[in-house]
Amino acid sequence: MERPLTQHISANHPWLNLKDYTAVGGYQAVHRALKSFTPQEITKTVQDSELRGRGGAGFNTGMKWSFVPMDDATQTKYLIANADEMEPGTFKDRLLLEGNPHQLIEGMIVSAYAIQANTSYIFLRWAYKKAARIIKEAINEAYAAGYLGKNILGSGFNLEMHLHTGVGRYICGEETALLNALEGKRATPRTKPPFPQVSGLFGKPTIVNNVETLCNIPHIINNGAAWFKALGLGADAGTKLYGVSGQVNEPGLWELPMGTTVRELLEEHAGGMKPGFQFRGALPGGASTDFLVTEHLDVKMDYQSVAAVGSRLGTGTMIILDDHTCPVGFIHNLEHFFAQESCGWCTPCREGLPWTEKILLSLENGQGRLEDLELLETHTKHLGPGSTFCALAPGAMEPLQSGLKYFREDFEKHIHEKKCPWDEERNGSHLH
Amino acid sequence: MLSAKEIKKLDHEIALVPIRKSACIEALKIVQQQRGWVSDESLRDIAEYMEMSAEELDSVATFYNLIFRKPVGRNIILLCDSISCYVMGYKKIYQHLQNRLHIKFGETTADARFTLLPNACLGCCDHAPALMINNDLYRDLTNDSLDEILEEYK
């Protein structure tokens, strides 16, 4: 089984510096791309590989690049690595950033060449202190070795790379909000169109790609589109970093073929539920994805298969809901996060999310009414796709709408019993 | 008044961006690093140097949760309160912190040793519950490990 992204990353060893990275074939894709490919050929190869954005949206990466206008060679363009990993339950990019920074830098050089961008940024979340230190050092190494800067490998292609660390807020991961943050503004999302590919950072054509997406690029250039496609088990291409957190025996992160089933992740890799805990459901790809339940254990974790059962692959890092955790409290925690992280720009999100959170809290505290469930359902429509400025509120509604469907009895119990059925289990340490 | 050291750092950041005020978040970070937080007076000084109004800069400063517009303690505890840490029991850790430090989220100890803040997912969910103190990440927390960790910060 091939693990192109993580094969050289080991938990007990320090990060791969330039020497380590080149010793295992690193930067070959830069040599190859700059010498033997036109920018258009790189884009075509990536498009043919069917690599889809690993940040959660799942858009074809090569197609995204193909929207960048290429007719004016003097045009300023930007490439940005979105390393603002902040989707609750998601911890996959951290491994790539801390373990093998040159793989990301190499992916960025090849990607920047494909769109002919001469300036690039890594937008890193503030909390990733170790990653910041490592990336800074790796960028310096890459400059010293001539992989960054002017006239890279004598090709005539120039690329500057900067590390930018954020100062918090989930919304910075939304690509147009990220651009505003990078411009020193409040990170509210922008109207689309124009899309960033045409008018992005400082009004110039800009590509924003997730870290895991960019790390795949060198391997696609080295091994070809057909090789990449064949890595997947189902309809989608490549490998995927999958994670499992919650009350399982061995929570963790693994690179596996795209299309590995929920059951294999849970039972083989995460070692099954801890003794005394039963599986009740899982958010397959971060906080903003619909619940999967027992009947979905054999679903393949790829974009199409997860979508077919009403959820999203998202970031591919699962959060498990167990039988000792109250589903209403679980969903309240999620909606508290989303209400707090709403940028406040559009009314449905700014007003609707705190309302949702308050209703859930009153239910959890045994003060709910049956009408509240209808009210919550109304919110899932009013804050759903098409009603808000960006995808934050629709994402927030995904675990709520599926939670209401799969855990309806638990919601009703709170109302009938006028308390949370899990209250006593928490030994009176129920702190809201 | 901005110090010479702060101005030197600010000028470095300004040189990297095409529009002067685009460096304003960096400017806030630089001043906060020196002074611990961004007072009204600091905010006005930064705004003047960045050639923007204090109001515009404050709209940026108050958007981001890690720019502090109120005084904070010598050490900042950021306790993850997101979903994986919720499942794995961050509330017990929060209770223990309250018992030990006698402060709630958003408060600072009387001796200014610690400020306690909630924080969104720290991205180490396979080692929940987790928190950061200043620049350091601590994972797989228990009440006992937490006691030892707190001793490291004076």
UniProtKB/TrEMBL annotation, chain A:
Reactions catalysed: a quinone + NADH + 5 H(+)(in) = a quinol + NAD(+) + 4 H(+)(out)
Protein name stated in the entry: NADH-quinone oxidoreductase subunit F
Family to which this protein belongs: Belongs to the complex I 51 kDa subunit family.
Function of the protein: NDH-1 shuttles electrons from NADH, via FMN and iron-sulfur (Fe-S) centers, to quinones in the respiratory chain.
PANTHER family: NADH-QUINONE OXIDOREDUCTASE SUBUNIT F
Gene3D superfamilies named in the record: 3.10.20.600, 6.10.250.1450, NADH-ubiquinone oxidoreductase 51kDa subunit, NADH-ubiquinone oxidoreductase 51kDa subunit, iron-sulphur binding domain
Pfam families: Complex1_51K, NADH_4Fe-4S, SLBB
Gene Ontology MF terms in the entry: 4 iron, 4 sulfur cluster binding; FMN binding; metal ion binding; NAD binding; NADH dehydrogenase (ubiquinone) activity; quinone binding
All copies of domain NADH-ubiquinone oxidoreductase 51kDa subunit iron-sulphur binding, residue ranges: 328-373
Alphabetical UniProt keywords: 4Fe-4S, Flavoprotein, FMN, Iron, Iron-sulfur, Metal-binding, NAD, Quinone, Translocase
UniProt xrefs under SUPFAM superfamilies: Nqo1 FMN-binding domain-like, Nqo1 middle domain-like, Nqo1C-terminal domain-like
EC number: 7.1.1.-
Obligatory cofactor(s): FMN; [4Fe-4S] cluster
From TrEMBL, chain B:
Keyword Isomerase: no
Keywords of this entry: 2Fe-2S, Iron, Iron-sulfur, Metal-binding
Bound cofactor: record note: Binds 1 [2Fe-2S] cluster.
PROSITE patterns per UniProt: COMPLEX1_24K
Keyword Transmembrane: no
SUPFAM superfamilies: Thioredoxin-like
A Pfam family per the record: 2Fe-2S_thioredx
Source organism superkingdom: Bacteria
Named cofactor requirement(s): [2Fe-2S] cluster
Positions of [2Fe-2S] cluster binding: 80, 85, 121, 125
A single GO molecular function term of this UniProt record: 2 iron, 2 sulfur cluster binding
Family per record: Belongs to the complex I 24 kDa subunit family.
The protein, known as: NADH dehydrogenase subunit E
Organism: Olivibacter domesticus
Upper classification of the organism: Bacteria, Pseudomonadati, Bacteroidota, Sphingobacteriia, Sphingobacteriales
